[in-house]
Amino acid sequence: MTAFGWLAWLLAAFGRPGAEARLAPVAGWPAVPAGWSFTMVSNISGDSRGRIYVASRGDHPITIFEGDGRFAGTMGDADIRPSTNYDLTVSPPRPISVKRWVHGIFVDSTDNVWVTDLGRHVVMKFSPRGKLLLTLGTLDKPGESPTNFNQPSSVAVAPTGEVYVADGYGNSRVAKFASDGKFVRAWGKKGSGPGEFNTPHALALDGRGRVYVAERLNNRVSVFDSDGKFLAQWTGLDHADAIFIHNGRAYVGTGADKRLVRFDLDGRNAVDVAPPGNFGYTHGIYLDRAGDLYVADPIADDAHKPPTKFALSGR
Beta-carbon neighbour count of residue 51 at 10 Å? Predict the structure, then answer.
């Protein structure tokens, strides 16, 4: 964005009540080890100690950094294996490429790390030390059942342990599981009506048990109670791909117009945190306890680019 573009955005933003949020990139974050490169950073999360977990599609599917950017290790190298992912928008499905197709990542309240693997159709739970504890779905067996996903996109875990999965590319549903992995229920079907989905891509949970689903191809966020009852929808979000809830506000990243928008949890008082065009593709977002913002951008100018950290003021 040009200097004139930034100035125009700032003038417009500060002319609106409540439009005070703004970004400042944190230089030098993270400190990538010598000789290291990422391959398509797809998502990002953080734990109770302030560590940041980066999901990407190279040799190290989960890379861990301290909050200050120091390299802290990897996990999942042996368990998240390369596979062939398919483009399901064409018939017959077309193979895309062979990669470690980790897509979504979520660190729960006890620092277990959950990921979705598109290519192998599963959700995996790792201990804080990287031990594989649980697999939801059936490896390499796509389907739509209590024991099968079809390219699951996102996972989120409530403080009480319930697990929610956006089964979002091959299927059009959200599946709920008990903390031990037992299937509870699923809801949704393909469509554009209330409670229907078209590529449910990301999930977030609030403190009242509500489930927020960012839908890429319906260009909206749909809101449900914990049992799947439809409550509301926020429209006009061009390719809503990422969502994160922090301090009673929802931050939504849109892929097509490259925005980051902040809402109250009732979907009102929208504010552009970043002007359109500021990112390559806001595929995954995370805010830490200090309110700093992390953006996973797999379609940046450089496919080997690490995630970006921003200091977010006016939050």
Answer: 19
Query: What are the percentages of helix, strand and coil residues in the chain, rounded to 5?
Result: 5, 45, 55
Count of domains for the chain: 1
Q: Is 190 helix (H, G, I), strand (E, B) or coil?
A: strand
Q: Which of 245, 244, 225 is nearest to 296 (CA)?
A: 244
What whole-number distance in Å separates Cα of residue 180 and Cα of residue 61?
A: 25
Q: Where are the beta strands (DSSP E) in 49-158?
A: 52-56, 62-65, 71-75, 83-87, 94-99, 102-107, 113-117, 122-126, 132-136, 154-157
Would you say 109 and 94 are in contact if contact means Cβ atoms under 8 Å apart?
Answer: no
Read off the pLDDT of residues 168-209 as tens digits, 9 standing for 90 and up: 999 999 999 999 999 999 999 999 999 999 999 999 999 999
Domain carrying residue 54: 3-313
- pTM, full prediction: 0.92
pLDDT band at 36 (very low <50, low <70, confident <90, very high): confident
CATH number for position 236? 2.120.10.30
**Residue for token digits 């660190």?**
107
13: number of Cβ within 10 Å: 18
Exposure letters 249-274 (e unless 16+ CB within 10 A, then b):
bbbbbbbeebbbbbbebebeebbbbb
Tokens of 13: 């933003």
pLDDT class of 314 with cuts at 50, 70, 90: low
CA distances from 260 to 54, 234, 265, 274 (A): 19, 14, 15, 5
CA separation (Å) from 175 to 146, 227, 268? 8, 10, 27
Closest CA to 175 of 192, 140, 150: 150
Of the candidates 30, 58, 179, 57, the residue with the CA atom closest to the CA atom of residue 116: 57
Residues 6+ apart with CB under 8 A from 78: none
Question: Is the distance from CB of 248 to CB of 265 less than 8 angstroms?
Answer: yes
